């Protein structure tokens, strides 16, 4: 079965569907014993802000929203200070708030999402992709490793220290 996946900017009309997907992800993290996303963030306001700023993206599978992510160009203040070192200091895409609809979970959708993000990054002439995740988000840690992201150190976000990764695209 060859499903068609596409990455597109999220529209304000998508917000309720995106929020439902994020709520599923929050619950899955809780069930997995993760502390990430267990303090009221992200929330509907986060989704609406992402969309308004042009950061919100959805990956669709045959037209249906399967994955949400925020893609931010060259702007993550927390990344200016890292315990460790980034691979590059050029332009970058930041990936935040990755959430998969439960019915697509376990089907490699986040790996497909990262393929789309890397294609997008390359098409924009941007040097690298940077991402952080919680220490106990084993699924994302495995995905980053499998996609060739390099561990660069730790960054401090509002809700604690995160493992930081980067992949040079061009």
Structure description:
This protein is α+β, with helices and mostly antiparallel strands and 170 residues long. It contains four helices and eight strands, in the order βααββββαβαββ. It has helices at residues 15-31, 44-53, 109-123, 138-146, and strands spanning 5-9, 56-61, 64-73, 83-84, 92-100, 128-133, 150-157, 160-168. Strands 1-2-3-5-6-8-7-4 form an eight-stranded mixed β-sheet. The chain is globular.
Write the layout of secondary structure elements.
Elements: E1 5-9, H1 15-31, H2 44-53, E2 56-61, E3 64-73, E4 83-84, E5 92-100, H3 109-123, E6 128-133, H4 138-146, E7 150-157, E8 160-168
Q: State the strand order across the main sheet.
A: 1-2-3-5-6-8-7-4
Biggest sheet, in brief? Answer: 8 strands, mixed
Provide the helix percentage: 25-40%
Number-wise, the strands total 8
Q: What do the pLDDT scores average to?
A: 94
Form type: globular
The number of helical runs is 4
Task: Give the SSE string.
Answer: EHHEEEEHEHEE
Uncertain segments of ≥5 residues (pLDDT<50)?
A: none
State the distance separating the first and last CA atoms.
31 Å
Radius of gyration of CA atoms, rounded to a whole number = 15 Å
């Amino acid at each position: 079965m060859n499903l068609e996946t596409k990455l597109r900017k999220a529209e304000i009309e998508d917000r309720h569907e995106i929020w439902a997907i994020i709520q599923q992800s929050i619950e899955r993290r809780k069930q997995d014993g993760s502390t990430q996303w267990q303090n009221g963030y992200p929330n509907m306001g986060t989704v609406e802000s992402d969309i308004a700023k042009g950061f919100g993206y959805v990956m669709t599978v045959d037209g249906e929203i399967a994955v949400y992510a925020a893609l931010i160009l060259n702007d993550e203040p927390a990344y200016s200070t890292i315990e460790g070192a980034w691979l590059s200091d050029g332009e970058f895409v930041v990936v935040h708030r990755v959430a998969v609809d439960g019915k697509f979970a376990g089907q490699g959708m986040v790996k497909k999402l990262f393929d789309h993000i890397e294609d997008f990054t390359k098409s924009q002439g941007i040097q690298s992709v940077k991402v952080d995740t919680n220490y106990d988000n084993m699924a994302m840690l495995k995905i980053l490793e499998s996609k060739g992201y390099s561990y660069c150190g730790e960054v401090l976000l509002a809700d604690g220290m995160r493992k930081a990764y980067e992949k040079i695209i061009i």
